[in-house]
Each structure stands twice: as C-alpha cells, then as structure tokens.
C-alpha cells in the first residue's frame, strides 16, 4: 500500500482537505466491486452519465439513492432462482451495491432502464453565488463586484 503526504497541499491551498481525503480513501480501497460492470461518461462540460449493465434486473429490484455527496445504487434480486436447473450459468444475477462520491453541486437528473442498461444522468449546476466574479479595486472600504461577462 502506498501512502502520500498531503502536508504541502495544506500549506498552500485552503479548502482542499476533502480532495486529500478522497485521494487517501481511493488509495486504501482496493476492494471496489467490479460487478456489475459500468461506464462513467462525460456527456458535455457539466453533464455525466453512469451506465451500468444490470441484465436480468427489473425496475422494482433496483434502488438509486443520492444523499449529500454520495450516490448509492443497489440491486436486490427478488425472484426465486432455487427451482431452476442451469446447465451453464454465464449471466450473473447476484445482489450488488455501488457507491459513487459526487463533487459539489452534482445532482442526479434522470434514471432509466433500457436493454439491460441502467443509465443515470447527472449534471453539475454551480449556483450563481459560487461562479467567478471580478472584483474592482476602489477607494471605498467595500469592494465593488462586477458580474463577469459571458464570452
């Protein structure tokens, strides 16, 4: 296991402690589940899509939950597999749980199940108050804020 010292980051940057914690957690968690397989796609600058192969699962057997900065996807098979006799079983149909850490201002906008793929649409919506603003230096004690022009 490899360890990194984030002390230089803390000396020169403010508010990036969460980033360091995420990097540290990613280095420690080698047991990330690989079932079911999934893709994370950058659709546009502020839009993302998670596509998860969930063949054999129905809508009622899937649960998607977004709490704070975590997206949790759970699949629980409800059908009885005990009375089936397989000669070959190549399609996995076991329960699963995946967790994804979401960046600030990322939220789920839609989820759909089509052709065995669970597609979860996400968007990053930065509030106006968090967008960059140009600060004009003036003689008064309060800085004057000028809205940045869209290029």
Description:
Pfam families: HSP20. Residues 29-140 form the SHSP domain. Belongs to the small heat shock protein (HSP20) family. The protein has 151 residues and is mostly beta strands. The protein has a four-stranded antiparallel beta sheet, with no helix packed on it. Strands 3-4-5 form a three-stranded antiparallel beta sheet, with no helix packed on it. A two-stranded antiparallel ribbon has the order 8-9. The termini are far apart. It has two domains: 1-32, no CATH class; 33-126, Immunoglobulin-like (Sandwich). The protein has helices spanning 7-12, 17-28, and strands at residues 38-44, 47-53, 62-67, 70-75, 96-101, 106-114, 117-124, 134-136, 144-146. 12% of the residues lie in helices and 36% in strands.
Spell out the key features of this protein.
2 domains; elongated; 3-stranded antiparallel beta sheet; 151 residues; mainly beta; Immunoglobulin-like; 4-stranded antiparallel beta sheet; single chain
Concise account of the structure shown:
The protein contains two helices and nine strands. It has 151 residues and is mainly β.
Give me the secondary-structure topology:
Elements (H helix, E strand, L loop, with lengths): L6 H6 L4 H12 L9 E7 L2 E7 L8 E6 L2 E6 L20 E6 L4 E9 L2 E8 L9 E3 L7 E3 L5
Antiparallel strand pairs: 1-2, 2-7, 3-4, 4-5, 6-7, 8-9
């Amino acid at each position: 296991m490899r360890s990194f010292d984030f002390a230089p980051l803390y000396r020169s940057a403010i508010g990036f402690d969460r980033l360091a914690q995420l990097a540290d957690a990613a280095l420690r968690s080698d047991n990330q589940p690989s079932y079911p397989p999934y893709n994370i796609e950058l659709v546009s600058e502020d839009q993302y899509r998670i596509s998860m192969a969930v063949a054999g699962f129905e809508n009622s057997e899937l649960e998607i939950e977004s709490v704070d900065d975590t997206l949790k996807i759970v699949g629980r098979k409800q059908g009885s597999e005990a009375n089936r006799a397989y000669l070959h079983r190549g399609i996995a149909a076991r329960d699963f749980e995946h967790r994804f850490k979401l960046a600030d201002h990322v939220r789920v906008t839609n989820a759909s199940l089509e052709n065995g793929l669970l597609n979860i649409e996400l968007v990053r919506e930065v509030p106006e108050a968090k967008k960059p603003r140009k600060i004009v230096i003036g003689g008064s004690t309060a800085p004057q804020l000028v809205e940045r022009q869209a290029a």
